[in-house]
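User: Hey, my collaborator sent me this sequence without any context and asked if I could get a structure. I don't really work with proteins. Can you help?
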Amino acid sequence: MPKSFKSPSLLGHPWHWYWLALAVIALDIVTKVWAVERFMYGPELQIIPGLLQFTYAENYGAAFSFLADAGGWQRWFFGAVALGFSAMVIVWLWRLPAAKRWEPIALALILGGAIGNLWDRILLGYVRDFISVYYGSWHFPVFNVADMAISIGAAMLVIELLFFAESKDAEKSAEV
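Assistant: No problem. I've predicted the 3D structure and written it out in structure-token form, which is a compact way to encode the shape of the chain:
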């Protein structure tokens, strides 16, 4: 059977990228449940005193609590945006060549993080955050595993665009 007519196996391209996204979702949900049980009514846990702690926070807005005080409509707006974006990333992953590695890993991290936060937003109306980075009186907004996955995936896409795009263009022109 020609390669173009062969359907992907369960662990073949692009399924393994979806499995990575599912692992991010599972890790995100498990850590959020742990954080709720451990920190919702209890004290923070200092990991690195003066720098990193686990705590509990509810984010009713988007990144950095953007529009958190908007009255409730933002729950559905940001949910719809995350759902549409996730659908786009699912299709993007499906269309990538099987030989690619960096880009699909980045997209799978972003997809898993987006769905992890979407889960909270739809079910609870807010996103559960628990990782707090601070120094003295300066505090970075509290975040979660999904936020880390989205940030790492986005950074990977930027790195690819800035440092690897020229080598791809050179490869394409060499093939012609």
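In plain terms: DSSP finds four helices and four strands in the chain. You can pass these tokens on to your collaborator as they are.
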